[in-house]
Design the sequence.
């Protein structure tokens, strides 16, 4: 498939450059890239127009030769002019090709590929996580009358987590779930997927490997991204999230209005180098190279996508309500926003051993940003021009971080852990205790 579309509409940059500049400034990005894009775009369009004009002139002279009574005389007479136009046409065509955003080494292409989505006006101002805006919270953090233990200590004492053997198998930032630990992880996954099905998400079992084109089309391969695992021989990437295959599922397709919104859910392992997190969360399940989650993805009409974001966030939030875990929802500030997103809510669960909330789900509206590159469109009726869908995604939820929250929030003084009531039918038990 040709890369005919870029994530940010060049027509928007031409029409409203101040909005794009302001979005870059809010993100903390140098907005001069917008001026360079406009300059290069103007050069490209001028060269293309010149080539089209010269081609028209060349065709007109060739037609004149064809209509002349004495074609040989006309060809001889017009040859110098035709040769001059042909040389100028070749120069203009080469210049337009070199400047084109579809040229592999084009500076315009590089700038457009690495320009993030335009922020929604409702995104709070700010540079770091302290500037994120709390939207709502639920559940009071529990008070313990004994010393709180971190999840890795609980898990190892219960015999359900083994980090030492995981390191022997694969190195740091991996874990082995054993016995009830593996059962609990599977129970959480089943619980999440059944709740998604009840909310009419279509379950998908996607590949866990993706082509560079699929990764590119969903915004994973910008020059700012270095967290992906690549098999260079197969030229396939291990997916960092099921968002990638779910969003790209309809690449190159034109959907009908009555098929929107589309809602997908998928369990998958996720693979990330976590290169940008050196020294952070080195113990336990919080930040690993391989982890599991259930991902929720929407394809929506443009006018319905912000309402869809609220629903998607509520769907993920409902899981924590059922699990009786304290949490809060924050609107990410401009400086914390991801490359693809126009607006993002993070759902953060309370982690007692840290005495703070930690992200367990991130729900984003990517507007038409990913759909442009993947060319996912829809028609309102058979006679209308295709429009780009809006794509949304959110974790529903990250399984490893859910295990952390369950273990730590439900721990008892004797080292056992209570299983949330909503999860007991899936786990087939009411508590975790040391066995064997």
Sequence:
């Amino acid at each position: 498939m040709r890369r005919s579309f870029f994530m940010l509409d060049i027509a928007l940059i031409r029409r409203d450059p101040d909005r794009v500049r302001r979005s870059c400034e809010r993100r903390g990005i140098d907005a001069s890239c917008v001026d360079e894009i406009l300059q290069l775009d103007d050069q490209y369009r001028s060269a293309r127009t010149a080539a089209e004009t010269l081609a028209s002139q060349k065709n007109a002279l060739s037609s004149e030769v064809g209509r002349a009574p004495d074609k040989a005389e006309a060809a001889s007479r017009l040859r110098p002019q035709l040769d001059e136009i042909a040389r100028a046409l070749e120069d203009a065509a080469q210049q337009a090709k070199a400047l084109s955003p579809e040229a592999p080494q084009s500076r315009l292409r590089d700038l457009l590929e690495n320009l993030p989505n335009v922020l929604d006006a409702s995104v709070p101002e700010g540079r770091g996580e302290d500037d994120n805006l709390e939207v709502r919270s639920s559940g009071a953090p529990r008070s313990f009358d004994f010393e709180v233990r971190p999840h890795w200590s609980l898990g190892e004492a219960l015999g359900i987590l083994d980090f030492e053997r995981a390191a022997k198998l694969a190195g740091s930032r991996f874990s082995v779930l054993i016995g009830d630990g593996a059962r609990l992880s599977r129970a959480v996954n089943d619980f999440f997927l059944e709740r998604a099905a009840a909310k009419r998400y279509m379950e998908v079992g996607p590949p866990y490997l993706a082509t560079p084109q699929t990764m590119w089309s969903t915004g994973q391969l910008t020059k700012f991204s270095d967290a992906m695992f690549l098999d260079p021989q197969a030229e396939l990437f291990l997916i960092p999230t099921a968002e990638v295959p779910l969003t790209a599922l309809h690449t190159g397709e034109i959907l009908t209005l009555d098929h929107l919104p589309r809602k997908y859910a998928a369990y998958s392992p996720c693979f990330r180098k976590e290169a940008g997190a050196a020294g952070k969360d080195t113990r336990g399940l919080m930040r690993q190279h391989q982890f599991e989650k259930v991902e929720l993805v929407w394809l929506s009409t443009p006018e319905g996508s912000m309402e869809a974001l609220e629903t998607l966030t509520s769907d993920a939030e409902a899981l924590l309500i059922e699990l009786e875990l304290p949490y809060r929802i924050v609107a990410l500030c401009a400086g914390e926003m991801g490359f693809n997103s126009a607006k993002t809510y993070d759902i953060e669960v309370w982690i007692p051993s840290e005495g703070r909330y930690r992200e367990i789900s991130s729900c984003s509206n990517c507007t038409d940003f990913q759909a442009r590159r993947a060319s996912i469109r829809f028609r309102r009726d058979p006679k209308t021009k295709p429009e780009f869908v809006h794509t949304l995604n959110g974790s529903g939820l990250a399984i490893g971080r859910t295990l952390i929250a369950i273990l730590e929030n439900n721990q008892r003084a004797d080292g056992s852990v209570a299983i949330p009531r909503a999860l007991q039918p899936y786990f087939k038990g009411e508590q975790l205790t040391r066995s064997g």
Observations:
- The first helix runs from residue 10 to 15.
- The longest strand covers residues 290-300.
- The mean pLDDT is 91.
